[in-house]
Design goal:
The protein is an alpha+beta fold and 237 residues long. The chain has 6 helices and 10 strands. The strands form 2 sheets. The chain has a 5-stranded antiparallel β-sheet, covered by helices on one side. A 5-stranded mixed β-sheet has the order 6-7-8-9-10, sandwiched between helices.
């Protein structure tokens, strides 16, 4: 009998495959099972369960529980503690120490410390950037540690009175991945973007970056385009 368990935005469910049908059970904090209150169609394959549960419960996402993940079968709520909660914040000019941690995290995750850590701007520059209406930086923190980071730019448009947001960088520390942090950052960005009148969020992913592609595919519509880097030139040549 197949009986995988999932953390669904902070709630634990067990899905049992019995006689060709799925039976959904809720797992309590004491390990006891009870009716889950929803049904999974029999045609859903085991490999499709995470996506099905995400689509079914995505409105239950919170900054501290922002994803659906399959749990190892050894999972027992009484013996295996859940990951510590995290908080998501939008940075302001008063958050310079957090911004510098954010830059260091990008350097660590992208293996590019020279770009992100070795030549950081001075406090005046960073404060002006964080106070700008065209720049947004967000951090996911556990205690005093930055474990996730997002940064990008609001692009005022010319063809209509509206804006786009370009999500430039998104990173989660390796030890804190698969815990919904990236999804929570994007969900908070979606909320903030809507409040600021942004009509679309743009993000790119490299070929071969399967986790990023899977994340963005769950949250948006994929468009296959070509990207070009054109260097500036003083003489236009």
């Amino acid at each position: 009998m197949s009986a995988p368990r999932f953390n669904v935005f902070g709630r634990i469910y067990e899905l049992r495959r019995e006689a060709g049908r799925w039976r959904a059970l809720s797992v309590g904090n004491d390990g006891k099972l009870g009716p889950a209150g929803f049904e999974v169609p029999s045609f859903i394959e085991d490999a499709e369960l995470e996506q099905f549960l995400f689509d079914l419960f995505h409105e239950s996402a919170t900054p501290g529980n922002g994803d659906v993940r399959r749990l190892p079968r050894r999972h027992d709520p009484q013996r295996l503690p859940m990951p510590q909660p995290f908080a998501v914040q939008t940075l302001t000019p008063q958050d310079l120490p957090v911004m510098r941690q954010l830059l260091d995290l990008f350097g660590e995750v992208f293996e590019d410390r020279p770009t992100y850590s070795h030549h950081q701007p001075d406090d005046t520059y960073l404060a002006q950037l964080l106070g700008s209406p065209t720049f947004i930086a967000m951090a996911a923190t556990r205690g005093d540690e930055v474990v996730g980071a997002l940064a990008g730019y609001v692009l005022p448009k010319f063809e209509q009175r509206r804006s786009e947001f370009y999500l430039y960088d998104l990173a989660v520390a390796e030890a804190h991945r698969r815990q919904g942090i990236a999804t929570a950052l994007i969900r908070e960005l979606q909320r903030l973007a809507a409040a600021r009148g942004v009509y679309v969020i743009l993000v790119q992913a490299d070929h071969g970056d399967d986790p990023a592609i899977a994340l963005y595919s769950r949250l948006g519509v994929r468009e296959d385009v070509l990207h070009f880097d054109i260097p500036p030139s003083a003489d236009g040549g």
